[in-house]
Every structure is written in structure tokens, then in C-alpha cells.
Protein 1
Amino acid sequence: MIAALVQGVLVGGTYALVACGLSLAFGVMRLVNIAHGDLAVCGAYLALVVATGLGVPVPAAVPLILPLAFGAGVVLQLALFERALRGGVLAPVLVTFGLSVLIQNLLVTGASANPRSLDGGAFALAGFETGGVAVSWLRVAGFAVAVVVLGSLHLVLARTGFGRRVRATADDLEAARLAGVRVRPVFAGVAGISVATAAPAGVFQGLMSTFDPYAGGLLLIFAFEAVVIGGLGSLWGTLGGGIVLGVTQQLVALWDVRFAVLAVHVLFFVVLVVRPVRP
């Protein structure tokens, strides 16, 4: 039982890392990005290409892909999301769904549909034991990165001028414009951060298991569930939602592993019924 709780918390950190960018984009721009999971998978493929091309370990490739991921998010916002957000409630959903399909087909064409994995070296196999519970260092690293990312985003939003503009825009878009906030650069920065946080999430997914061009759909589902359970637009709530999902999955797996993922989806459905969705 204790081992399942520990593993559930660590797995929940990985879910939160995937979900934090989705939560930020919705909280500020009201953008439901269906392609968010696919963008995370792109991060895994990009890390594979960089690590192989430069002959460096995968963890060393992560800092190199973050600026590329941020730039991709900015470009997507200025070229695609911005227009979609002006088209009403359904337009962003349809546009990002189309982007998801496009990304999947591009990945299949460029990398084939074969499952891949990232080589974490000895670190991916290392672990330690405490209180009779075996813990993987890779899982601990994933949880630590999630906490660092969420904490950094919280500090940026609370202590910087950019963060104040983001919070003002999230609270009231028109009032922020009247106060002189340039909303377009704010949205571009938020989109860049959203994609940049998705990239390392995809890398950890590739280090812990396999990935393929269609893996983004499942990542999106878990991320969306973590965001809704934790509270839409709440960064620390996203971490809490991810932990709830991870612990539920691990505890049910003790009983029957076949129902572990189903139990997570049932929990999400129960939360939707009991607590209406609101930012």
C-alpha cells in the first residue's frame, strides 16, 4: 500500500508536468489545446534527434530543445491560435484538433509509426530503497522537475512585470487592454511557455516508456483530467490533480491492473458530475 502511494505521487508529478502548460493556456487565453499532447510527443522526438545528432545524453538535450519549443509556441499563437480565438468558442477546439491530426501524420511520415524510447543510461535504471519501498531516481527526477517548473511559473506570475500583465489579462481581457496591456505579446509568451513545458514532459514520457506518433492522445486525456480535477487555470491545483490521478491508478492496480486506467477516467467523470467545471 505504501509503495503504491509513493509511486502514485511520483507518477502524478509526471501528469502535472504534462498538464501545467494546458492549464496555463486555458487560464489566460481560454484556449483548449487538443494538440497539447502531440506537442509533448514532438518534444520526445526532438530530444531523440538532438541527442543522436550531437552524440549527447538525452538529459543534456533538454536545455537545447526548450528554446525551440518556446519559439514553436510563439509561432503557433501568432499564426494559428490568435485567429482561432477570434472565431468563437468552437473554433480553437476545431483548429487545434486539426493541428493534432497534422502533427501525427507528419511524425508518421518522418519517423514511421514504430514505437521509440529514449535512452536514459544508467540513471534510468538506478533507484534506491527507503522503508522497504523501491523508488526509481527517474520518477523522482520527473516529480522534482514538475515542482520546479510549477514553482518557477508561480514566481514569474507573482513577481515579474510579465506575470502581472498575464494575471491582468486572465482576470479581464478588455480591462487589461484599456489599462495599456499589449495582449498580443502576452498571449504569444503564454503559448511559448505552454509548449516549452510540454516538451520536457514528452521527454520524461520517452524515458519512462515508449512513445509513437499517436501517443499524444493519451497524454492529453491525462493532462486534461489533471487540470479539471485540480481546478482550471490553477497551477498548484494541477499538481494536486495529477497526484490524485497517479495515486488512484496505482491503488487500483494493486487490486487489478486491468482497471487502473479505467478507474482514473471514472474518477474524472465523478468529479465532473459532483463539481461543475469553472475557471
Note: The longest strand covers residues 127-130.
Protein 2
Amino acid sequence: MAERPYIVGNWKMNGTRAMLPEARAIDRAAQRNMKVEVAIAPPFTLIHAVHREAEQIGVGAQDCSCDPDGAHTGDISATMVADSGAKFVILGHSERRSAHNETDAMVAAKVRSALDAGLRIILCCGESEATRDKGEAESFVLNQLRTSLPETDNAAEKVTVAYEPIWAIGTGKTASLEDIEAMHGAIRALLVETYGEEAGPAVRILYGGSVKPENAREILSLSNVDGALVGGASLSAESFLGIAVAASEAEEA
């Protein structure tokens, strides 16, 4: 069984210091809801500031370079991410794969770099609508993971998988409950195959793709859905905390 539900906010390219009150509100509410683990990944420019504000929530980054240092203008290494106060990093998000041409091999290299720097990882996977329409969604997603999942001890402490169907990210569309459960079940089987009967069931699998307070409880009640990776709804403390509350209610049900 995986740990308590994990609700992670991905702020993407949103936020200035004016957003710090939202982070404070999320942190204070998380202290009152210990049944759920809450974290946010702000832009690089806010990691240190949010880390200083946070007493309860986890703080992470949205990406890192696969290189430890060097002449890479504009890049941020995993060591720099850790030095800023981040404890985890989101890797392989579809927006990085598409807009920055990140391959599975590049994602795998970033995973190794992040783990070497002592960061936990949230490894993203997901298919396009065209891939799903061709009936190839499961094989596509599992291949992404086979290429990128690290060989590591204590996998449940270091690795979280986030399944985000690309066509549902920021579109208002959500995969059907049956499709979510089926994909998460396939991912769980791969995690057991990769990490064994003890560690495999303990690695958390998050769902992402237009998760909102209104649909969170039914999604988070599904088998092998251990939390959510939340985009737009995480920019407001009210909506994000609504998802955290739904997670605790799903856990109690």
C-alpha cells in the first residue's frame, strides 16, 4: 500500500513574490490536514522564498538539467535546485517533452542527475489523444516509464510517478474513471515488476489532467490513484486545498 495521499501543485510559469500569501495559506492549511501530504513546485525564482515560508508543505522544482555544471546558459542543475531548498523535482512533463524536445533518454539522464543530488523525483508520463485513439496508450506510457525509471534502492522514498494524459492537461477534459483506473493498474504492475513485491506497491502514482475540487474525490477514490499533480487549480489556495480535502475524504471512505 502506498503512503498517505500526495497532492502536488505545479505552478508552471506563473507566480511572482505576490503569490507568497497563497503559499502561506496552503502551508497553514496543510498543518491542519495531516492525512494528506501537500507540496508545490513554484518557478525557480520562488523556490527559496517559498521554502522559507513553508513549515509543513514540500517544495520542489519543475525541471532540472541533466548536467551537473558547465557552459549551459539558462540551465539549472539538480545541485542548484537542491541548494535553493527544493526537496523534489518534476521531470518528463509533457510540456517539457513537446516544447523543449525532451526525449526519453534525456528524461532518464535528468532522473539520474536529480537522484545524485539527493532530490526525490516525480516522473511524468502520458499519451496524446491520437495515441489513445489508436489503442496504443498503455504501451506508449509503459515504454516511457521503462526507459526512465531508475534502478534505485528505497524506490518508494525516491520515486513518484505522475500519469497525465496530454489531451487532458489544461483543457478541462478529464479521462474517464475507467481509463484512469486501467492505466494506473498497468503502471502499478510495471512498478512491481521493476521494484519487487514490497517496494512496487508503495511507489505512489498521481493522476494529473484538469483535476479540480469538483472531480477530485471520485478520481482519488480509484484503485492505485495515490494523489494528484495539479496545474491551474493549484494557483489558488482555495481550489488547491479543496483538492487536498477531497483526498482526505477519499482516504477515509
Note: Strands lie at 6-10, 37-41, 58-61, 88-91, 120-125, 159-163, 204-207, 227-230.
Protein 3
Amino acid sequence: MLKKLSLLFVLVSFGLTANAQIKTPQPSPAQKLEQVVGLTDVTVEYSRPGMRGRTIFGDLVPYGQTWRTGANANTKITFSDNVTVDGKELKKGTYAIFTIPGEKTWEVIFYSESNNWGTPQKWDETKVAAKTAVEVYEMPMKVETFTITFDDLATGSAVLGILWENVYVGVKFEVPTDALTTKSIESVMAGPSGNDYFQAATYYHTEKKDLKQALAWMQKATAGENPPFWYLRRMSLIQADLGDKKGAIATAQKSLAGAEKANNADYVKMNKESIAAWQK
């Protein structure tokens, strides 16, 4: 018994129990790269193999063959908005980046299925969201570790750089900064939206603040054609709390008609009950 306890003490002291795990560095460590281009968030997740004395392009990575563009799981890029690559629109989302290296040019492919480990067992051309050919630039020095960069940042574009050994290739992509900025400017300059007025009025009403101000906001929220029935419901409740039962009933009847048209049983029931109560 004493020998067993002594052995256990030794194992625990040196971290050699069954639950212990040996940690070693990964030969191709993972990296997550985040960049805002204009108003668009772009993220790249990839693994970074090293040269380790090997010849890379034309040997370890053969010319003319599809390459995973890194190591381990797919190299992935995620766009928060629709972007454009070589005139082709890429919908916002995540794509695997595959490449076909050549001596003078590379093909760079954005593939809609991004959860492979390496290249797909069966290539599906319908999943090619965009592809482009880019020129190879020979660098005057060698880059030991496979590297992806964001270069030539501008308000409406950037270049996705790929570097390894003595090779650099860059893929330009364009982001919808002008459209997003223009929309933002127009929205702000146009003033609060109907929903902004509705949210403000709802807060003032539920928190029992200035009901006259809440009603003024609801009048603006419902000023257009066919205001939502839930806007009208809130307005009727504010009118009732201000003592305007006649106005509340008229507004609730409009909300009721809208709710019936939308087959919203909850609002139909609530409006009918309120109208009956206010008519007494």
C-alpha cells in the first residue's frame, strides 16, 4: 500500500497522471486577421506553414494544381457586405480561398463551401463564387512563414496579399463604401424614421413620462399611408391615457382593421377588448 501511495505521489509531482496532456507548438500555427476596409469588416482565418529548408512553389506546392492556400483546414475569408472581385459580385459571407499557382500567374478562387480540410474531395464548379488571375511578383528576399496581408487600403478597396518563399500575389477587392456612406447620410439627413418615433413614444408611454410628447411622436410615426397596426395600437393606448376616449376608439378601429387583414389574432382581440372598454 505504501509503495502505491509513493508511486502516485511521484506521478502527481511530475504531472504524469492520466489526465495530464502534453502541449507542443503547432508546426503551422493558426492566425486570425481582421481588417475594416471602408465600412466593411473583412476577416481571414488560416494556418501558417514554414519553408523549413524546402523549395515551395513548383515542388512542395506544384504548379498547375489546386492548393489549399496554407495548411490544415481551409483558409477562409469573411465579408460583412457584398464585395466585388474582378468585376464579379461576392455576396457577404464566408468563402474558402483556393489557388492554382503558376510561374507567372496564379488563379485565385473564392469557393462557397468553406468547411473542407484541404481541397474538396469532389470539386463543384457551381460553388465557385468568383475567381481571378493575378500576376506573380518575385521578391528580393525570402519569407520563411506563409503570410496573408491586407495591402493598399483605400476607402473603397484593398488588396489581399499572399506571400511565401520569394513570391507575392495580390487580389484586389472592392467594397461598397460609397453606397453605404450615401445611405447613412441620406438616412440621418432625412431625420428620424417612423420606427424611431414609435420606439421613442413606446418608451415614454411605458415609463409614464410625457404622454403629450409620446402622442406627438406617434402622430409622426403614423403620418404615412397604411401605418402598421401595432403603431396604431400604441397610439390608441396613449390617447386613452390622455383621456381622449373618442380618439382612442377611432385609432383602435384602424388598428383592428389592419390586424384583421394581417390575420393577427392577438391584436384583433386586444383592440376589440379596448374598444369595448372605452365605449362604456
Note: The chain has seven helices and ten strands.
Protein 4
Amino acid sequence: MPELPEVEVVRAGLEPAVSGALITGVEVFDQRSLKRHSPLEGSFEALLTGRRMLAAGRRGKFLWFPLSAPETAEAGSHPDAVERALVAHLGMSGQVLLRTPGVEEDGLLRIRLQIEHPEHGEFWVNFVDQRIFGSMAVDRLLSTPDGQPGGYFGFGAADDVEAWRARVPSQVAHIARDPLDPAFDDGRFFAALGRKRTGIKRALLDQTLVSGIGNIYADESLWAARLHYEYPSDKLARPRMRELLAEVRIVLEKALAEGGTSFDAQYVNVNGASGYFSHSLNAYGQQGKPCTRCGTPIVREQFMNRSSHLCPRCQRPFRAR
């Protein structure tokens, strides 16, 4: 499943094309991709057509695009009129691709947005999904409890739109902030980690505690911090927590710089290009290969219906004294 770096690569690629773009048309080719859209909110197509996407935001693995009021509404450009957002979740195989209008090149196309940007012209935003685990929905925005921005918007969002920036879609509100979010509270994370009473990898995968870290980057971060995946989170001393969080950020930022991790053609950016972090992995998928730190063969062990990869010498299990 795409993790934070892969989703952030998509967000950053979409941002210049969609920020300020008018949605001129919506085509839904498969209703299953609207499984998270509530029909009580209204027609998906009608709620989008005639509105502008104001920015491209992300929290963890969720993308969303705050929507202006319809162009015909008197308050269309007023920040307080922003009550809804288009929310996208890639699931296991979803892709959001920018295409030139009239060029049919994407199979398994589920949803298409026709947009017109005041500077960059017309685009198609194609939502492609092989397994249909991903989705799009129009959702209501809620105020964030801390008054901070609802997620990461990059540098493309204007500075005069705080009324909508400090809001988050209701479907995303339960997701914790991610370690690259400027509003991420390190102290709060450490305190919550100490209360978890679970293995450290389970804690890292808990999206209500910290978001965006999936199996790949959890394994890589734990390898970097020399921690076994079952090490009790409540037994970690505060300095070790700081070290782990620092390694998480280093791993995520490096993966982001390399375009994410691509093992097949499903995980791509908005132009269909793959990431290259798979060439930099030290633990995940490296079973049988020597640890780049000590030379001991990396092992793969069963974990929560998936796998954990670790160095048995560098990452020893916790032993109670």
C-alpha cells in the first residue's frame, strides 16, 4: 500500500495544476470508487462541477482538495464559504494522474475530473484503480481542535486562507498527524507512545497515534534505530524515542526525495513515473542479504498477517531485567 512518501509525491505533483483550477466536468466510470461518498451530501458530480480546488493537502495517506463555493454563488471567493473538500485515498493500487485532454491512455479508469487552470490551461485528472480499494468522495470540513492547519499543503497555498486551511475533512479527522507535518507535536507523540503498552512497530502502524508510516518505512526506521519490532513502546526511554522519531523523519524524507518506493507499475507519480527508494532499502525485502551495518543476514518474520524485516544482531529482542 502506498505510504506517506508515495502520497506526498502525488500531492506535490498535483498542487501546481489543481490549485485554483475550476472543475468543468466530472465523469464517474465505476460507482465502486465512490464507496466513501455519502449520497446524502448530494451528487458527487454536482458537488464538484463549477467549484475551484483551492489547494492540494495531505494528512498521512489521505489527499484532499478544499473546494470553493460554486462560481455562481456570491460568496464564491470568500474563505468562509469553503465547507467541503474532495477527498482521495489511493488504497492499494489507486493512482491520480494528470493527462492532456483528449489523450486516452489510462486503462482501469474509474473517475475523471476535467479542470481548467487560469495559468496552466486544461487538464484531465484521472483516478485509476486496479483493485478498487481506493476512493474519492466529497466530504464536509471540520475545524481542527488545535487551530493548526488540517494537514500538509506545501508552499502553494496562499497565506490569506487560514479560515479553510485550519480545517480537515470529517473522514480524515481521526487520523493523527504525520512526522513531516509542521504541526506534529513531538512531546504529545512521546507521551502517547509511552502509554501504548504494545510492540513499537504496532505503535508506528497505529494511524491514530502517528500517520503515514506503513510496513516498509516502519521496518527501515526500526533498523536505523536498532530496535526490534516487538520492543515494548512503554519501555522506551525518552532519548530512544527521540532517536527513533529522528530516524523515521530521515527515512521518510529520503524516500520522498527519491520519489517513494515502487516495486511494480502501480505506485507512480502524477506523470506515471516510478520512485527509486527501493534501491536504498536496508531491511524491508532484503531477507538473506547481509546487513549493511554488520554483515549479518537480514531475516523476515511473520508479523500481523504481514512481515517484518530486521537484522537479528543489530535489533535484538527486549529482555526484561
Note: The two ends are 38 Å apart (CA to CA).
